[in-house]
Structure formats: C-alpha cells, structure tokens
C-alpha cells in the first residue's frame, strides 16, 4: 500500500473514492449503520478504512465522473450498495408490521413514539420489537457478516461492472413479500389471543350492560397483550433470528452476482 500510495497518490485516492461508493451506499440504507445516532464522520471513516483494504487487495479503477462510462460505473456502484443495505432494512420492517397489528388489537394505537430513524411515529410495541431485533442482530454478529458480504461482493461484482443479475433482483422483491408474511407470523398468536379477549369482553358487556366497557376493556387488553408478549418471547426470538439470517442470505446471493 505504501508503494502504491507513493508511486501514484492521485490514482490511489481516486480508486479509494470509487471503492467507497458501494460501501457508502450500503451504509445509507442498512439498519444500525444508517442510524442517526452514528455520526456521519464515523461512517465516512469506516467506509474509507474498508475501501483502503479493498484497494490494496484487488485492482479498483479510478473514478472519472467527467466521462459517461465513469458516471454509469459510479451509479452502478451506489445501486449495489443501496440494494445490499435495503435487504436488511426490509427485514427490520417485519417487527414494525407486527407492532402495528398488536397495537391495534390491544388498543395501544395511540401509544406512539417518534422514530428517530424514519422520522415518523410508530407504536410503542413496534419500537420494542424493533429494538429486540436490533439486539439479536448484533448478538449473532450480523453487522460483521453484513460487512463481510459487502467486501466479498467486490470479487463477484468487480467495480465498474457491478450489476446483479435479474434473478438476484427477483430474490429482493420476493424477500419483500416474505417480510410482510413474517410480520404477520410474529403478530398472529398475540392478535388471536387479543381477539378472544375482545370477544369475551363483548359477551360480558351483553351479560352485564351496567359495566363500563371502556374502563374495563382497555386495562384487560393491555394486560393480555403484555402477558402474551412475555409468553411468546422465546418464539419471537427464534423467528426474528430466522428473519435476520434469511436477510443476510438474500444479501449474500445478491453480492454473488
């Protein structure tokens, strides 16, 4: 690396900036790396460090945006990085879908917090499930495996010719459908239990009309939702781990070209 840098520092810098495009695109869309709590300077330094390691191990062409070929190559690099990170972003949407369903059944739709990541309000249960999935993703080193996938993609998708095949894009679209299915699977047992609770409250109200359903129904629904979350916690952990693993597998297939 020292010889390359001293021999032609301009070419080394151009190659490093070109290699940073794919990594930077992945950091823009990938969860955890794109979180607003991580300073932009830290992300740039991390992308630069990875780019230096890539440039010193494999040939990377220099970036020349003044030509049409260079501009097309830059767009393709950014597109690959965005696609790899978007796969994980889709996976992290599953707990938010489940949180919406559970909150609607438990009467907690009003208990929403502003999500600093997306800038929109999301239910408290969705925030809890999303935080749980983030901790699980970090626990089995999913962030390190994702960085490994991005680095290995330079071998299968050389810089300058980095567009996945049509089958890889179909995998990405199919994974989007799986995310909604997984979100409903997460929420299904709890939603069914809450439906039974609401039906029981309806029967109770018909049997004793003098009861205030609004004073009784909401506490009972909330307690039932919390109890079901506690009971379903082991299954939720297993399902969320499987979702993260499948997301990484899809990203790895896309990076394989």
Description:
With 257 residues, the protein is mainly α. It has one domain. The protein is 76% helix and 2% strand. It contains 10 helices and 2 strands. Strands 1-2 form a two-stranded antiparallel sheet. The mean pLDDT is 80.
SSE map:
Layout (H helix, E strand, L loop, with lengths): L1 H6 L1 H21 L10 H16 L12 H24 L2 H13 L5 E3 L6 E3 H16 L2 H15 L9 H42 L5 H19 L1 H23 L2
Number of helices: 10
Number of domains: 1
- Biggest beta-sheet profile: 2 strands, antiparallel
Overall mean pLDDT: 80
The sequence of SSEs as H and E is: HHHHHEEHHHHH
Nutshell version of this structure?
The chain has one domain (2-255).
Structural key phrases:
single chain, 257 residues, two-stranded antiparallel sheet
């Amino acid at each position: 690396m020292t010889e390359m840098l001293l021999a032609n520092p301009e070419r080394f810098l151009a190659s490093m900036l070109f290699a940073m495009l794919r990594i930077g695109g992945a950091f823009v869309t990938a969860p955890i790396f794109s979180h607003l709590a991580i300073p932009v300077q830290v992300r740039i330094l991390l992308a630069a460090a990875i780019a230096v390691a890539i440039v010193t191990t494999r040939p990377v062409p220099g970036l020349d945006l003044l030509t049409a070929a260079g501009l097309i190559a830059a767009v393709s690099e950014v597109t690959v990085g965005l696609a790899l990170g978007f796969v994980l972003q889709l996976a992290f949407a599953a707990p938010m879908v489940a949180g919406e369903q559970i909150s609607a059944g438990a009467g907690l739709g009003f208990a929403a917090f502003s999500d600093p990541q997306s800038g929109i309000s999301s239910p408290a249960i969705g925030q809890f499930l999303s935080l749980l999935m983030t901790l699980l993703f970090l626990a089995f080193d999913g962030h390190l495996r994702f960085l490994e996938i991005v680095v290995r993609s330079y071998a299968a998708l050389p810089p300058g010719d980095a567009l996945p095949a049509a089958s890889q894009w179909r995998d990405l679209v199919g994974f989007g459908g799986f995310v909604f299915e997984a979100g409903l699977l997460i929420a299904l047992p709890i939603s069914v239990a809450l439906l039974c609770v609401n039906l029981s409250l309806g029967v109770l109200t018909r049997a004793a009309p003098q009861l205030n359903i609004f004073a009784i129904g909401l506490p009972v629904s909330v307690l039932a939702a919390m109890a079901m979350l506690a009971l379903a916690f082991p299954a939720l952990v297993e399902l969320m781990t499987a979702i993260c693993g499948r997301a990484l597998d899809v990203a790895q297939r896309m990076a394989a070209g």
